[in-house]
Amino acid sequence: MDRFKNLISKLDLRKEKVISLLLTLVLTTLIFLDNNYFDHVLLTSTYFFSMAFLAVLLVAIMLLAGHAVYKSAIHASVGFGVLIFLAQTYCNLETKTPDGIEALNTLWTIGFIFIVYEFFNKLQEAYKAHTKPLRDDIKTKKWEPTLLMVIYSIFILIYISLITKVLTPIVLDLCIYKSDIGL
Questions:
Q1: Residues 6+ apart with CB under 8 A from 170
Q2: Tens of pLDDT along 69-103?
Q3: Where do the H-state alpha helices sit in the chain?
Q4: Which of 8-17, 87-96, 107-116, 120-129 bottoms out in mean pLDDT, i.e. has the lowest?
């Protein structure tokens, strides 16, 4: 027993190394059994499991990116909802004045700048929190963390573009953006 403990201490087996070692032993055993006893059944199903693993990994990254974007959107939606309510209420009035339109335009511009700033500020906080382990791994590993960060960033951009596509018609329907403002 002492020789075994001495061997383990010499190998410097930390948790990360033990997991890698066990994974390697399990895969080696599976390949040996497949080659000698299972007539390469496991090898042919490896492609399916690889694609399934890749799909699960992409879905996990997509959900993490969606969490960051929607958390930021929920934070910004309160102010955006108030701005939309003010603008639509004013636009539905029968008596609009040029001064009122100017005031609404100024309120809308300042509020929109603030809301966009808050959205991207919260998004940056979530991005930093989610990618901190990856940014730490970039120093030791070359391409894996970078690839994951790129995929994560692409999903964030996709979510932002989807939100923009939904909000654009709502905003462009406001009376401050129409040429005929009903004065």
A1: 84
A2: 998 989 888 888 888 888 888 888 888 788 888 88
A3: 2-11, 15-36, 41-91, 98-137, 144-172
A4: 8-17
Q: Look up the pTM and report it.
A: 0.66
**Residue 120: pLDDT band by 50, 70, 90 thresholds?**
very high
For 31-40, the CB contacts below 8 A with 24+ separation are none
The position carrying tokens 């201490």 is 9
Cα separation, 149 vs 158, whole angstroms: 14
Give the separation between CA 134 and CA 65, rounded to whole angstroms: 14
Of residues 68, 45, 39, the one with CA closest to residue 149: 68
- Please check whether residue 43 is in contact with residue 71, taking contact to mean a CB–CB distance below 8 angstroms: no
Using alpha carbons, list the distances in angstroms from residue 86 to 40, 59, 146, 176. 67, 38, 44, 12
